[in-house]
Every structure is written in C-alpha cells, then in structure tokens.
Amino acid sequence: MRPKNLDKEQAIRSIALQIIAEEGLENLTMQKLAAAAGISPRTIYIKYKDKDDLLVKLYIEEVLGNYETAVLAGFEPEMAFTDGVKKLWLNAFGYFKSNRHAFALMQYGKSSPLLNKAYQEMNIKEGDFFAPVLRFLEQNVAKGVIKDFPHQVHRALLFAPALDLVNEYFDYLGRPKQIITDEVFMLCCEVVIKGMTNPS
Amino acid sequence: MRPKNLDKEQAIRSIALQIIAEEGLENLTMQKLAAAAGISPRTIYIKYKDKDDLLVKLYIEEVLGNYETAVLAGFEPEMAFTDGVKKLWLNAFGYFKSNRHAFALMQYGKSSPLLNKAYQEMNIKEGDFFAPVLRFLEQNVAKGVIKDFPHQVHRALLFAPALDLVNEYFDYLGRPKQIITDEVFMLCCEVVIKGMTNPS
DNA sequence: CGTAAGTAAATAAATATTTACTTATATTTG
DNA sequence: CAAATATAAGTAAATATTTATTTACTTACG
Is A114 on the interface with B (CB under 8 A)? Predict the structure, then answer.
C-alpha cells in the first residue's frame, strides 16, 4: 500500500493555519487550502471527515497540544510560585513568538462556538488540559501563598494578560519599535505575581 | 417618501449579533440573517454596502461604541486609581451581563483580521478609544501610583483578566452553580489593582 | 405622483463534498 | 524471488448547494 505522505499532512495543517492567520477563519475554504497546498481537495477528505473535523483537529492537536507541551517544558508543580509562573510566562512567550499562525487560531478558540465546544468536550474526555498547572495552583493555595479561588479564576488572572501582551507583540512586529520586549513582558509577569500572592 | 423603519435597522443588528453568538461569525450569511429578521436580503443592502460593511459597523458602532459608553459611565480620569479601576470593572461586567451577544462579537475582534483592521483604522481616524482611561493611566503614572509602561501594557494588565472572567461567567450560565459572582469578580479586581500599584 | 423603502425572484460565483479514475507500494502467490 | 494483485493514497473533473449580490417590480408616504 502506498505510504502516507507525512509532508502532505503537515502541509495541509500549516497552510491552513497560515490562511486563518492572514485572512481569517471565515475565509478558509477547502478549495483555497487545497490549491495553496498543491493538492486536490479530495486529499483533504481522505484525512479529515469534513471541514469541521479539520478545524477541530487543527485547533486541538496542532495548536492547543503543541502549546501545552511548550508551556509545560521544564515546569514542575512543586516549583515555588514565583519561579513557576515565570517559567510558564517565558515558555508561552517563546512558543508564540515562533508560532504566530498557531496564535491566530488560538484566539479563535474563544470566539468560535465550534472550537469552544470542541475544547469543552475534550477537556471532559481527556481530563484537564494543563493538569500540572492545576496541581501547582492547588499546592500554592494549600501553602497559603495565593488566595483560594476556583482554578478558572486563577487562570484568568495568570494567563489572560500574557496572551494580550502576545497580541500586542504581533501588532508591533510591523512597526519601527517593539514595545513588548522580553524585559517588559517579564516585568508584567512580576506585576501579576505580586497581585496574586498573599503578604507573608 | 416612505419613512425609514428603525425597527428593521435595529432588528438586522441585533439578530446578526445573535446569530454570530450562537453559530459563529463564519456561519452568518446574508440570507440567513434576512430570513431571521423577516425581511428581504435586498433590504440589508439598502442600509449596508456589503457584508463586510455590515460586520464592521456592527463591531465598531453596535459593540465597541456601546461598550465604551457603558464602561465610561460615571468614570472620571481624576478618580483615585483604586476607585477608577473598580468603576471600570463593575461597568464592564454589568454591561456584558446584559449584552451577551455583543460580547461574542467583541471576542471576534481579536481574531478576525477584518475586524482587527477596522479597529486599528478607526483608532487612528477618531482618536483613541477610551481616551479618558488613557488620561487616567497617565495621571497615575505621573503621580507614581503605577509603573511607567506603554498604555497597551497597562490595558492588558487591567482588562484582559476581566474579559476572561466574563467569558467564564457565560460558560457557567448553563451550569448549576455560577462561580463568577459579583463578589469573586471584584476580588479579582483588587488582585489586579494590588499588582499594579507601587508600594507607597 | 414622485421618490425612497421595501420585496420576491433571479443570477452568477463560490463552496463543500462526490464520483470515477490513476498511481504507487506492500503483500501474496506462482 | 519476481509477477500479480489488493489496497490505500492520490488526482481531475463534476455536482449539488449555498452564497453574496442584483434586477425588476411593488408599496406607502410626503
């Protein structure tokens, strides 16, 4: 039997991400994608049931999966709060800086009902995404380092500003002077840490 | 001459927002919108040049415009930092709680290149959105209450967590117990304030 | 009655998805 | 161990919808 052409599979995914980043999810069509990848539309349907299936797998596997791996690299739930948070922020910034297209689809995750639903269902089936971060937060609550909020609340406080800063970083890529430098990014990280930690 | 039917104009806008919220921007079509509003597709084209024009006006006027008005109600740039931030957070939470559909399109503003571009261009033409917030931040930098960051950075730190919490609030609307209560929301506001303010 | 708002039906271009066919390779068979 | 075959991967072209947008007509008011 003819072997899978992994290049083609990867081409579909990365070119799809590129189109989404440049023209928007609403302007990604199967024929446009096939043409850009230099394949027949039919080929996409061999690998994916339909357009929704492609989008969901792109989002869950290609974007969230890789993002999780990158963010958790070298992170341990037992780390001190300050060290752990800094590690997570650095990892996230590093990952997105070299994966701009993934970031674009990531943003759609909060808007598109299709992706949102897929994320929820997946979180239920596979157990929580970013489980080590959850344990990290729980331990720091137990130690009295941070307040006892639901973890969704902790996540909002911790990561929402980071993602917004990444957005600004990309906005400023085309301009003469970048305002979101590594230094600014990490100063913000310290602001967030300071807000969250209890006075000892 | 036949008078403009303002109800119809408003119906187009609010039903468009509803479809976007429930099915996603990528599933809003002119025919679906016309059918849901009980009018002919042609009627939409009397009021809007084309689909993009409709989306951009929906986003800028209906969503961002109303959001700005609601958030700035009773807010003064001269307020003490803590009071000002609390006012902004409360206003934003209150507005979105009763405008869920507007929040959905708001989220698309960060993802969709069309809306993103429209926002940037509009910010240049009309002067900055949320100008009173800018003055508020500048004055507090001058007073040494908060650090001297670019205002985009301040905005990320200040508002990104709030929007993320609103998202969680809506996620939990269908579930037995709401975790994002007014109390939790305002506790988070205090966390953010604490992080941003310099020790005095 | 003139004019603008509105409608119903048509149109032309895109779009997701299929059908019918070709190609390349892994496995089987002589 | 080759030739034969089954099988999956792939393609080109077609199809049946769906889509944005127009055209040609109707209505209601100043």
Answer: yes
